[in-house]
Amino acid sequence: MNGSGQSGPGPNGQRVLVVDDEPNIVDVITMALRYQGFEVDSAANGMDAIAKVASFKPHLMLLDIMLPDMEGFDVAERLGAQRSRTPIIFLTARDATEDKVRGLTIGGDDYVTKPFSLEELIARVRLILRRTGDGDADGDNRLTFEDLELDEATREVSRDGRPIELTATEYRLLHYLLLNPRRVLTRQQILDHVWEYDFDGDARVLETYISYLRKKIDVDCDPLIQTVRGTGYALRRANKG
Questions:
Q1: CA nearest neighbour of 144 among 158, 130, 163, 124
Q2: Helix, strand, coil % (nearest 5) of the chain?
Q3: Cα–Cα separations (whole angstroms), residue 42 to 1, 46, 58, 70, 232
Q4: How many whole angstroms separate alpha carbon 28 and alpha carbon 224?
Q5: In what order do the strands lie in the sheet with 232-235?
Q6: For the segment 22-39, what is each residue's pLDDT rounded down to a tens digit?
Q7: Reported pTM
Q8: What is the DSSP letter of 14?
Q9: What is the mean pLDDT of residues 39-60?
């Protein structure tokens, strides 16, 4: 058993791609996911993973950082626009803060260090799939503020009609801000709602994502993402005068 086959439909048709070059790890994770009812496919290197994202169309990817042909970070970066539709949980034996921050800032949704508990891994998979699920198919799925618009059904974002490409985590951050327009959100509130895990209290993760989001949302426009000194951030027009 090499874990490369596909299983039957999972919960709500949810598909998970497992990317790791260690067959025993792939087998164990695949078996656990299939037992929980997920549809699973796997890849043993980066190029195969990129191809499987296009053909298998996973709802989530478990991505090892140390692959034989490239790092998992490189896989995430090469996926480009597909990252916003494919949440990523990085799997790695490396637990350095720099690796964790890098993984999260290039679009990763979580970071699990080996060895890990299968129960915890499954719980994180379910949590992220719930958090990144499609919007309600009925009714209005659009969140707007000024000329900024987010479609929850298609996950498309635009400002003044200009399409904006976001990673999965950038999307969640903007979504939370749009759910709370003009409201001052503390750093802890944002971390709790967007990440839901405590990354050792490292505030650089949030600050980095705010910086990335500003470069995409506020470019050539009046800034909408405001820093509230000593507290957090707010989605609102800047005070003038």
A1: 158
A2: 40, 20, 40
A3: 12, 11, 10, 16, 40
A4: 46
A5: 185-186, 232-235, 225-228
A6: 999 999 999 999 988 899
A7: 0.56
A8: -
A9: 94
